[in-house]
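re: ur question from yesterday

yeah so i grabbed the chain u mentioned. its 146 aa long if i counted rite. heres the sequnce exactly as i have it in my notes:
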Amino acid sequence: MAVSLKEPQDGDLAEVSEINVTPFIDVILVLLIIFMVAAPLSTVDVAVDLPVSNAQPQPRPEKPVFLTVKQDLSLALGNDSVAREHLQDVLDRQTGHDREQRVFLRADGAVAYRELMEVMNSLRQAGYLKIALVGLEDTGQGATKP
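ran it thru and got these structure tokens back, copy pasting raw so excuse formatting
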């Protein structure tokens, strides 16, 4: 509340009911500048170079099923090449129609994320919902092993 220092005629100080908006405008302008600087920083697209995993490796099944996406986007089940349209049939033969068996998916580093997702969608449509992504193990000594 603001008070006028002029002496009124009746001896009492009169209240001034006007709001001083200058400090309010200063605060708003400072907030505006902060948001103008901070907003572009939160929406920057950054190239992602994913690190190797340091998670403890899980025990391998007795006969794992490895599906590999090669650099030329062709598929290989184990060591044998597989056409995308025959993926379900070949997987059913190799797993004995056991769709609860985990499929280990490997991909070359040059394979686009979109292509990897298409292969995962193909596996899902074939009924294989347990998919494990295979990466390099971080041994902490600079060397990696598959």
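noticed a couple things. The mean pLDDT is 79. also The longest strand covers residues 65-69.
anyway ttyl
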